[in-house]
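4.2 Preliminary Data

To establish feasibility before requesting continued support, the project team ran the inverse folding procedure on a target of 417 residues. The structure was first converted into the token representation described in Section 3, and no sequence information of any kind was made available to the design step. The complete token record follows.
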């Protein structure tokens, strides 16, 4: 068999690449070793509960999202703009007053917004809100160094900002690029982080549905890739060009492009008994301001997206950074104990629906930020993925477009813009 472009991997980057090639009329084929498209963006349906593989959100404020996806068709369910912080035996709500003006009083009463701390946060966040490009052109440092330099300190940093960013960045020591963290915060402020009603699987499913029949082949493992051909579990396939759009370690094995270090996350999905009240009535992210256990964030997902749970049931996600070396039983008991402190509710009777251990959840993004790594490896071999751009859904989609454009330039095909 022969094709013009062979895309290895049907994650968001590979699918975005294929969709763009399709719009230009370029002959292509996508190979995926799993049983469904999505890569790291997948949803398992367990006994009627929709459990994303790792707590993930899609932000319609990402510029590439409306360019590539039909946002309205995703039927998004947004989180309310704010957080609930458990600290000192109490729970405090902090809301974005622009979107939740009714939460302004509760926000002002929370013991985190002193003038000194707010001034420090403004020094850190306002530049990227005013001019993101200027921040990207400027000097970079680690997130911890940038927060120190802006004098972001006290309870606001330790009890709110650090736990929140730990879940977003999959790290607890703030070693990520400050520029990258600031750009993420900008997207949270400008957008409405959400989940599709049918789960995050809706993103790759929509991209895959836009391909012509037969263009995506599942259950095909690729053992080797080189300009002109790949070796697969179903035999060799020849191609004028090859795009490797796998996870970074697999891309390194196939292309010898060094993989960045990968950061892990573990997400637990629990359900209270049928008919039982949820541990919170707020469709908000819950944090532990006292940081007394492994959970960096948790939410009652069925309050955000009722479709995530069967009728009369609720679904709670809890995420911890890294992969525990404890036994699954001991790790679960530690998580349950921490959830009790966060919610003030007894989770001992909750049923564990599923646990997702994502050892390679996100590539590290150290300073200085390099959001445009090469995708053309020369000779007809290309690479795509969030490790070539930014460690995000935005980065995966952009890298897919960049790889497709590089392929078209190599083949002498006009871009569809």
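Position-by-position output of the design step:
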């Amino acid at each position: 068999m022969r094709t013009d472009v062979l895309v290895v991997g049907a994650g968001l980057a590979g699918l975005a690449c294929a969709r763009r090639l399709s719009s230009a009329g370029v002959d292509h084929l996508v190979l995926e070793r799993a049983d469904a498209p999505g890569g790291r963006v997948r949803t398992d349906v367990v006994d009627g509960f929709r459990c994303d593989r790792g707590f993930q959100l899609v932000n319609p404020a990402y510029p590439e999202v409306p360019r590539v996806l039909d946002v309205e068709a995703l039927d998004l369910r947004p989180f309310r703009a704010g957080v609930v912080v458990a600290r000192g035996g109490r729970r405090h709500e902090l809301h974005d007053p622009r979107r939740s003006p009714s939460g302004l009083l509760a926000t002002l009463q929370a013991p985190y917004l002193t003038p000194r701390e707010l001034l420090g946060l403004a020094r850190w966040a306002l530049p990227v809100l005013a001019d993101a490009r200027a921040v990207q052109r400027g000097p970079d440092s680690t997130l911890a160094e940038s927060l120190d330099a802006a004098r972001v300190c006290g309870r606001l940093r330790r009890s709110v900002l650090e736990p929140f960013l730990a879940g977003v960045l999959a790290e607890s020591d703030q070693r990520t690029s400050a520029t990258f963290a600031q750009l993420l915060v900008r997207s949270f402020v400008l957008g409405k982080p959400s989940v599709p009603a049918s789960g995050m699987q809706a993103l790759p499913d929509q991209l895959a549905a836009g391909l012509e029949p037969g263009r995506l082949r599942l259950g095909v493992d690729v053992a080797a890739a080189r300009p002109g051909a790949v070796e697969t579990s179903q035999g060799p396939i020849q191609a004028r060009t090859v795009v490797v759009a796998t996870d970074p370690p697999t891309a390194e094995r196939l292309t010898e492009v060094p993989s960045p270090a990968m950061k892990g996350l573990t997400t637990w999905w629990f359900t209270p008994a049928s008919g039982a009240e949820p541990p919170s009535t707020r469709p908000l992210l819950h944090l532990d301001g006292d940081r007394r256990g492994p959970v960096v964030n948790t939410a009652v997902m069925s309050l955000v997206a009722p479709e995530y749970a069967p009728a009369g049931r609720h679904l709670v996600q809890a995420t911890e950074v890294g992969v525990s070396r404890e036994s699954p039983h001991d790790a679960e008991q530690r998580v349950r104990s921490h959830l009790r402190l966060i919610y003030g509710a007894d989770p001992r009777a909750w049923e564990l629906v599923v646990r997702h251990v994502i050892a390679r959840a996100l590539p590290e993004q150290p300073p200085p930020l390099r959001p445009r790594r090469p995708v053309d490896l020369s000779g007809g071999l290309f690479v795509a993925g969030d490790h070539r751009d930014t460690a995000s859904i935005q980065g995966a989609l952009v890298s897919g477009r960049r790889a497709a454009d590089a392929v078209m330039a190599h083949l002498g095909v006009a871009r569809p813009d």
